[in-house]
Amino acid sequence: MKVSKAAALAVKNLGYHQLGKCNICGSSTIFICIDVNTVRNNMYCPVCKSSSRKRHVAKLLIDKINPKISSLAEVSSNQQLNNLRIYNADVNDAFYKKLHNLKSYCCSSYIPDVQPGKEIQEKVFCQDIENLTFADENFDIVITEDVFEHIRNYKKAFQEVYRVLKKGGYHIFTVPCFFDKPTLVRVDTSGNEDIHLLPPEYHGDKIRGKILAYRTFGIDIFELLEKMGFQTTVDFSNYVDKRYGIFDSYAFCSKKL
Q1: Quick one: which of 49, 45, 87 has its CA closest to 172?
Q2: What residue stretches are annotated with the Methyltransferase type domain (predicted)?
């Protein structure tokens, strides 16, 4: 979104801005509302540019690594946390800004004409999440945000996440999900060619501009992950979360048993 357009929307939605503290950069700030209909994907922290959704993921991450800290900005100064092995399937985001100094933090982007596993910038690797190049049981935590609805073979991708996680490790993730009905399949991927079962739905992507959504997950995601060996819970944002700029959001956490 262009700066001028975002500024105009911020002024338009002035009454929806929210005072609070960012649980990523640790700043006391005003969370900026760009769109009242999709606050999950905006309510931006002007300091680290994180969205409500990303701060919800940070909430679960903090809960798993050390509930005593209030923001990810505190992680790099904690020697015990500095040894955590974290893989984030997003690049140049608010997490990277605060966690890239950890010796065992890395993230990735998928670039079709680049060899998978190649380091394309410091601690940023080209990775195909259906065929990760990382070793078995390599990470304590894997983070993916609104990724799996765009993956053709999502079951294989979940299995890859399971493979690279240590026992007891966590996959913290977000996906669009219906909690009252099964997964809605938008594209048939059973063959070599995509067959659209519904009008194509595309989501915005900061690298590619837009990206096809193959499905909207449903309540059956829990059974799928349980069969793979995960114990999965979902956290819905509540009134208290508003102090961290987390609104109308939910995030999943799967533990490798």
Answers
A1: 87
A2: 123-173
